[in-house]
Backbone:
């Protein structure tokens, strides 16, 4: 078989009475496709729940991974927050470190980019701040002068170069998987090897307005509705699609790739199948697992199977949707003959052309073994 360049992951997952991902008006996110409005879950929503999952297959449960933090307050809370220095020295150092991390407008919290930094980058910055604080020896004016010199154009480039050379996993595992954009420092950008599509219902939207009340238990008169509200609830069978650029993942993981790449892919397959978006947990319990998953490994440009649902299926039935998807896959195979290796999981009796049926563990093991086949 050819060396695998891409891992493609397709899923069908059903949810009843949920509000998985809301827009700015509190309604379900939507997508027009094939002339029909569908319910949608954004890629940002999906990725956040996968990377934050508290799960036996959590990405951060893997030995050797580094945490990362996405925030406007990394300097305040992580770099300077536990610094051993007088308060006036911290105040003197802070503006220069804010500008070093967030750019020239970094002294204003509202102007900062919500930036992702890895644990090792934060540790390096913390050590530099502590060194400057120690050199200042309690003198705030001297601390300000030292920090300004540290961030001066003549020194800062060398300082950042030193940080990058001593940071094995910039951006932590989150950055290595999902990328990073730093507007104040393009050289700190990380290209994402994991590409996530917005999930959408394979049928037209199914939505209703849910009227609900809150009852005042201690009202002196007969208990009644103290609060009356409405929210939107949706139901649907969602098609999800994820691509992993395998050489890109290995590059981002750097020297740690031999130990991390396989376990990361193994756990990612589990998370995609098992972890649900978490909105309105208390009132909808939106917990579901993929009723169908197809994983493919190949050396050709990836291609979504979303076109199978350009004409929406009449009923949100996983069996019918799987048949539509596999028919489209057969048509693509006949036209392009790209020869991907395939494994699939299904809760029903459908078969997939050229694919081996397996359990979720077997699909995850298949994905986890792919980095070992790269030259």
Residues:
């Amino acid at each position: 078989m050819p060396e695998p360049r891409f891992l493609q992951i397709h899923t069908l997952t059903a949810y009843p009475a949920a509000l998985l991902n809301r827009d700015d008006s509190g309604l379900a996110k939507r997508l027009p496709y094939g002339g029909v409005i569908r319910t949608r879950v954004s890629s940002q929503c999906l990725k956040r729940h996968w990377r934050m999952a508290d799960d036996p297959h959590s990405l951060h449960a893997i030995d050797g991974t580094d945490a990362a933090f996405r925030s406007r307050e990394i300097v305040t809370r992580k770099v300077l927050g536990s610094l051993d220095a007088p308060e006036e020295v911290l105040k003197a150092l802070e503006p220069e470190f804010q500008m070093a991390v967030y750019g020239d407008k970094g002294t204003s919290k509202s102007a900062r980019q919500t930036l992702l930094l890895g644990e090792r980058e934060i540790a390096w910055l913390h050590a530099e701040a502590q060194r400057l604080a120690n050199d200042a020896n309690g003198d705030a004016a001297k601390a300000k002068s030292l920090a300004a010199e540290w961030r001066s154009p003549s020194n800062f480039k060398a300082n950042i170069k030193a940080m990058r050379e001593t940071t094995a996993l910039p951006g932590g595992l989150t950055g290595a998987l999902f990328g990073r954009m730093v507007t104040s420092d393009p050289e700190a950008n990380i290209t994402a090897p994991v590409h996530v599509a917005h999930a959408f219902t394979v049928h037209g939207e199914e939505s209703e307005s849910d009227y609900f009340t809150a009852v005042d238990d201690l009202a002196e008169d007969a208990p009644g509705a103290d609060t009356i509200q409405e929210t939107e609830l949706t139901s649907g069978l969602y098609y999800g699609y994820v691509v992993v650029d395998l050489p890109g993942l290995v590059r981002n993981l750097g020297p740690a790739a031999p130990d991390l790449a396989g376990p990361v892919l193994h756990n990612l397959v589990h998370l995609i199948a098992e972890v649900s978006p978490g909105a309105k947990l208390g009132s909808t319990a939106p917990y579901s697992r993929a009723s169908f998953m197809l994983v493919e490994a190949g050396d050709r440009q990836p291609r979504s199977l979303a076109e199978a649902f350009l004409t929406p299926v009449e009923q949100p039935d996983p069996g019918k949707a799987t048949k539509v998807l596999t028919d489209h896959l057969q048509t693509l195979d006949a036209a392009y003959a790209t020869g991907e290796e395939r494994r699939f999981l299904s809760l029903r009796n459908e078969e997939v052309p050229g694919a081996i049926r397996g359990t979720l563990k077997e699909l995850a093991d298949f994905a986890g073994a792919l980095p070992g086949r790269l030259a």
Q: What stands out?
A: The first helix runs from residue 43 to 52.
